[in-house]
Amino acid sequence: MHKLAQTLLVHIRKNDLFRPGDRAGVAVSGGADSVSLLRLLLELRPELGIVLTVVHLNHSLRGPESDADEHFVRQLAARHQLEFVGEKRDVKTHAKLKKLSLEAAARKLRYEFFHSLLRVRLNRIATAHTLDDQAETVLMKMARGAG
């Protein structure tokens, strides 16, 4: 097992993030962080006893590039014989209507998408983000109950 996968497994177990039988969505944007998370969870899947689904929200912010990301993620899911669940949203219009920054609007729509999946087909969503994404780090700490 890869050293990073071992470290992640320890973290998952320590924080009781997954239980055998969980239907876990992995949020995959197509970027390095989320693709790495998917690869690690694929490696850990037999050990954890979880069912993985790839989830992707196309924010429609970069036109054909956003569509290419969606296509890449869809192919990645197929290559690993995983269910793919995707949606496309117009973040620019949502930001304008709600008077939000593009980043805030994208985050709001992304989490609405995740919550809709948690209500009907999944019981966990795994996301990758970097520590320099302060808003998501604060949300993660609040969700854990940390100050």
Structural commentary:
With 147 residues, the chain is an alpha/beta fold. It is 56% helix and 15% strand. Strands 3-2-1-4 form a four-stranded parallel beta sheet, with helices on both faces. Helix 3 (64-79) links the parallel strand 2 and strand 3 (83-88). Helix 4 (91-98) crosses helix 5. The longest helix is centred in the last third of the chain and has 19 residues, at 102-120. The radius of gyration is 16 Å and the shape is globular. It starts with a helix and ends with a helix. The mean pLDDT is 89.
Describe the structure in brief.
With 147 residues, the protein is α/β, with parallel strands linked by helices.
What order do the strands of the largest sheet run in, or round the barrel if closed? 3-2-1-4
- Measured by DSSP, the beta-strand proportion falls in 5-15%
- What average pLDDT do the residues reach? 89
Q: Mind telling me the C-alpha Rg? A: 16 Å
Q: Could you tell me the number of beta strands?
A: 4
Poorly predicted runs are none
Quaternary structure classification: single chain
Report, as a whole number of angstroms, the end-to-end distance: 34 Å
Order of helices and strands: HEHEHEHHEH
Number of helices: 6
Biggest sheet features: 4 strands, parallel
Q: In terms of structural class, how would the helical and strand content be classed? A: alpha/beta
Q: Into which percent range does the helicity of residues fall?
A: 55-70%
